Amino acid sequence: MFLGPPGTGKTHLSIGLGIRAWQAGHRVAFATAAQRVSRLADAHHAGRLQDELVKLGRIPLLIVDEVGYIPFEAEAANLFFRLVANRYERASLIVTPNMPFGRWGQVFGDDVVAAAMIDRLVHHAEVISLRATATASTTATSAASPQPPRPTTGHQQPTRGSTFGRNTGVKVQQALT
User: What is d(CA 52, CA 146) in angstroms, rounded to the nearest whole number?
Assistant: First the structure.
C-alpha cells in the first residue's frame, strides 16, 4: 500500500511494481478505484459478481489506484469491500489511498466497513507512507502547464484500466464512465 497525498508518486510506484511482477511472469491488472467499482457494479447488476471476483482472483497482482479521491456510495463501498475480502490472504493487492486511515469512514460512508477493510488490507502488508515535497506539490499543481514531449522507446506503456500478462502484451480495457 502506498499512502499519501496527491503528487507523491503512488501511482508511479505501483505501476513500477506491476511491471516488475509482469516481467517476472505474473499477470497484473491495474484500474482506478472508480473503474474497478464500476466494473464490479456492472457485474453485480448482471448477476455475475461472483464470476467477476473469481476472474479477478486468478490475477496474482491487482492494483487499485486513487482510493479515496471520490467518496463511495454504500453499494460501491460494499462491492469494494467484497473485492478486498475476496483477495484477503489469497492474492496480492496494491492500493494507493490519498488519505490517512482515520478518514476512510468518510470515503466509504461507514466506519465499520472502513475498519474491516483496513484490517484486511494491512494484515501481512507493507504500508509505505509518502509525504509531499515542494517539488511534488509544484508538479501536481502545474500538471496543466505545457510539457515537452517525452521520448518514447517504442514499447507500449501500461495505462489506467490496463491488464498486462507475459504472453499477451498490454490489453487496454475500455474505461467505464
Answer: 40
Chain centre distance of CA 44: 20
The C-alpha atoms of residue 123 and residue 41 are separated, in whole angstroms, by: 26
Strand 28-32 versus strand 162-165 pairing type:
antiparallel
**Going edge to edge, which strands form the sheet with 162-165?**
92-97, 61-67, 28-32, 162-165, 169-172
With both helix axes pointing from N to C terminus, report the angle between 74-87 and 111-122 in degrees, rounded to the nearest 10.
Answer: 20
- Model confidence, pTM: 0.76
- Tell me the C-alpha distance between 81 and 112, whole Å: 11
Task: Please write the tens of the pLDDT for every residue from 139-177.
Answer: 444 444 444 444 444 444 444 454 544 443 333 333 333
